[in-house]
From TrEMBL:
Residues 39-351 form the Aminotransferase class V domain. Belongs to the class-V pyridoxal-phosphate-dependent aminotransferase family. This is Aminotransferase. Pfam families: Aminotran_5. It comes from the Bacteria. It comes from Neobacillus cucumis. Its cofactor is pyridoxal 5'-phosphate. Substrate binds at R362.
Length: 420
């Protein structure tokens, strides 16, 4: 059997990940391999740590990627701080809240959760009141819920956690690099980012950061393991058990990423190159400018969709700027529309999960995919495809509305010239 050379068609990817990657990041990935203890490589690792601190907006000592997809970051932080029987509180407002519960349960936590309808978020005070009843050791929550396109306000929750001496772990996989999130200012103890979303780096790494409150637990558990824990250490380890995972043991990863450079795994060389270039591009653009860019293209997309006559899904006050959820019009086969977009226009948009499956499309505007040409392409193509599906859209209105947001000059008066 003869296999053809690898071929991937060029796509416009407007999903909540994986998204398009800047050609400079792809180029960085073809940089020659270096040994993992080569000073040239450890220097790159150190730069990645420093750039991550800036993107996470933290002074934390520890900020480095876990090798694995985004959920590996969630698992690494949670399994390193959860001891069997620990109480963890998880407010759930979409699919990824359920993932947090699942991970916590697998490591022996006693999980308490609360849920709100998909498309909404929690009033922070509700979370705080429930938290005060549950009295957990850890609160684990999603910041940007890609499944519903909502964003949970965290600042008040963070403050209440710190006051109650509760650890706050936040899944910011979908928001980091696209939406404002401040690790230190919002009192977030452990935070997880994702690469294939707003950072616009391929999938396969999960940058994380955590502070001394988490580090205290790690070092206590490590000393317990070695039988050298003091009374002071033991106050940070209730169960006095070692971390169950080897791959995700943050204390071992610290020894690898820190000055001791003790071998743990073999760092994913080409992915580190990609992350390095991706982070460099983000800092060169500027965090604030980048957040503004995401808002601008979101605005143009929404203006276009509404002008076409489509309705958005979910509470508009708590919309995640980088994911726009659109209600599938009545009697339209959402999957058929997505297929036609892909086959005829090489554009990918997403469906959704669970209770929202078949009800909404999700259009991502993340990182390198979040640019004018992509917004205009998806609006034009979606209009054409919906017309092909017999939907009575306001023809021609979507692109004009988006062009208005972009302040594209009108060169002729609005009384259209007749074609002769
Ligand atoms: C995408 C996503 C994840 C999971 O990412 P994987 O890379 O598929 O493991 C977790 N949380 C949120 C909020 C996400 O959007």
């Amino acid at each position: 059997m003869v296999f053809s050379e690898l071929f991937a068609p060029s796509r416009t990817i407007m999903t909540p990940g994986p998204v398009e990657v800047d050609p400079r990041v792809l180029r960085a990935m073809s940089t020659p391999i270096l040994g993992q203890f080569d000073p040239a490589f450890t220097n790159i690792m150190n730069q990645v740590m420093e750039m991550l601190r800036q993107v996470f907006q933290t002074k934390n000592r520890w900020a480095f990627p876990i090798d694995g997809t985004s959920r590996s970051g969630n698992e690494a932080i949670l399994c390193s701080i959860i001891e069997p029987g620990d109480r963890v509180f998880v407010p759930i407002y979409g699919r990824f809240g359920h993932l947090l519960v699942e991970i916590c349960e697998r490591y022996g936590a006693e999980v308490h959760s609360m849920e709100c309808p998909w498309g909404e978020v929690f009033d922070p005070q509700m979370v705080i009141d429930e938290m005060n009843k549950v009295k957990p050791k850890i609160v684990a929550i999603v910041h940007g819920e890609t499944s519903t396109g909502r964003m949970q306000p965290l600042k008040e929750i963070g403050k209440a956690c710190r006051e109650g001496d509760i650890l706050l772990v936040v899944d910011a996989v979908a928001s980091i690099g696209g939406v404002q999130i401040k690790t230190d200012e919002w009192y977030i103890d452990g935070m997880i980012g994702g690469t294939q979303k707003c950072l616009s780096v391929p999938s396969g790494m999960a940058p994380i950061t955590y502070n001394e409150r988490i580090e205290n637990i790690l070092s206590a558990r490590k000393k317990v393991e070695r039988g050298i824990a003091t009374e002071e250490d033991l106050q940070f380890s209730r169960s006095r058990q070692a971390i169950a995972s080897n791959y995700f043991d943050l204390s071992m990863l610290q020894d690898y990423w820190g000055p001791r450079r003790l071998n743990h795994h073999t760092e994913a060389t080409s992915m580190i190159y990609a992350l390095h270039e991706g982070l460099r591009l983000i800092l060169a653009e500027g965090l604030e400018q980048r957040f503004e860019r995401h808002k601008l293209h979101e605005k143009a997309l929404i203006a276009g969709l509404e002008a076409m006559g489509l309705s958005l899904f979910g509470d508009p006050k708590h919309k995640l700027p980088c994911v726009t959820c659109v209600e599938i019009p009545k009697d339209v086969d959402g999957e058929s529309v997505r297929n036609m977009l892909l086959e005829q226009f090489s554009i990918e948009i997403a469906s959704s999960f669970g209770p929202l499956h078949g009800k909404i499309w999700r259009i991502g505007t993340m990182g390198y995919s979040c640019r004018k040409e992509n917004i205009l392409s998806v609006l034009g193509a979606l209009e054409a495809v919906l017309i092909r599906h017999g939907v009575n859209v306001h023809r021609g209105a979507a692109l004009q509305a988006a062009l208005d947001v972009y302040n594209v000059e009108r060169l002729a008066d609005f009384s259209f010239k007749k074609l002769s």
